[in-house]
Write a structure and sequence with these properties.
The structure is a single chain. By secondary structure, the chain is an alpha+beta fold. It contains seven helices and five strands. The protein has helices at about 1-5, 15-30, 45-60, 75-80, 135-140, 155-160, 165-180; strands spanning about 10, 60-65, 85-90, 95-105, 110-125. A three-stranded antiparallel beta sheet has the order 3-4-5. The protein has a two-stranded antiparallel sheet with strand order 1-2. β4 (about 95-105) and β5 (about 110-125) form a beta hairpin. The longest helix is centred in the N-terminal third of the chain and has 15 residues, at about 45-60.
C-alpha cells in the first residue's frame, strides 16, 4: 500500500505506526470498518471492506508536495522556529542557524535549561531580502527538514502535519524494493 501511495505522489499524514498496524491487522482479519456503523445482523461483504479501506486511505493520505518556493529571511526565521531552529548571532553578512534544545543539568537538583547549538552559517543580506533557492535547499538538508526526513514542502512552508517517521522510513525502503 505504501509503495502504491508513493508512486501516486501520496503519503500517509497524521497516521502513526500503531494506527497503521491496527488497520493492516483488521484488513487481514476481514474485520476492518471505517466510520460506518452496521446493524448487528448485517453481513459485511468484500465490496464493503474495499469501500472502507478506500475511505480510510482517502481520509489519511494526502499529496506529497515537492519543490521550493521563494521566501524572505524573515519568513525563513519563522519557519525554522516552528521546528526548534532559529537564527543566532550575525557576523558581517552571515548569520548563524542554531538549534534550540532543552537539557537537564545537575545530579541532585535537576534543572532544565534551554541551550542553543550552532548548526551552520548562511549569507544574510537582511530580513526583507529573498533567500536564494540554493540556501533554502542547503538549510533544509543540514537541518534534516526535507521530504526524506518526513517533512515535505507543504509541511515545511505551511507548518502542516508532518509524516510519521516510521511510515516515511518504510515508504522509501518498500519503494526501492518494489523497483528491483
Amino acid at each position: 500500500m505504501l509503495v502504491h501511495l508513493d508512486r501516486n505522489k501520496l503519503s500517509l499524514f497524521d497516521v502513526g505506526q500503531k494506527e497503521l498496524f491496527d488497520m493492516i491487522i483488521a484488513v487481514a482479519n476481514h474485520s476492518f470498518e471505517h466510520k460506518r456503523r452496521r446493524k448487528s445482523n448485517e453481513k459485511v461483504g468484500p465490496d464493503d471492506e474495499v469501500r472502507a479501506i478506500a475511505q480510510w486511505i482517502s481520509d489519511s493520505a494526502d499529496k506529497v508536495v515537492r519543490g521550493e518556493k521563494p521566501i524572505t529571511y524573515r519568513q525563513l526565521r519563522r519557519i525554522l522556529e516552528g521546528f526548534d531552529y532559529g537564527f543566532g548571532d550575525t557576523n558581517g553578512n552571515y548569520i548563524e542557524i542554531v538549534r534550540h534544545e532543552t537539557v537537564t543539568k545537575g545530579i541532585f537538583r535537576r534543572e532544565r535549561i534551554r541551550v542553543t547549538k550552532h548548526i551552520t552559517s548562511i549569507g544574510y543580506p537582511g530580513e526583507t531580502k529573498e533567500v536564494a533557492m540554493r540556501v533554502i535547499k542547503d538549510v533544509r538538508r543540514i537541518c534534516r527538514l526535507r521530504e526524506e526526513d518526513g517533512i515535505d514542502s507543504s509541511s515545511f512552508y505551511d507548518q502542516t502535519v508532518v509524516m510519521d517517521a516510521f511510515i516515511n522510513r518504510y515508504r522509501k525502503i518498500l519503494t526501492r524494493l518494489a523497483n528491483r
